[in-house]
Amino acid sequence: MHFRNLRKTAGDMSLSEALDLDGEGNGLSVMDVVAQEDDMAERIGSAEICGSLRACVDSVLSPREAQIIRLRYGLGAARPKTQRETAQECGISRSYV
To answer: What's the domain count of the chain?
Structure first.
């Protein structure tokens, strides 16, 4: 039984397991090789916040107010527009935007 259990985990590897030495003589682990420098958790959090914001814009604001917010801040994968551009497109003053 013991050998059967060992066979199941024979291919398992720890992320902290040493692979080799890098050019400076430091230990190189599996985590060093597979790690990414970007902050994925921050990007996921930002995407969730943006989704919530879009849902609030659609459910809370009037259609005209929602259009102004979408134009001004570029919601929906559009380029954000300046106050002047948004005002011209909607036919309103910049201060209303």
So the answer is: 1
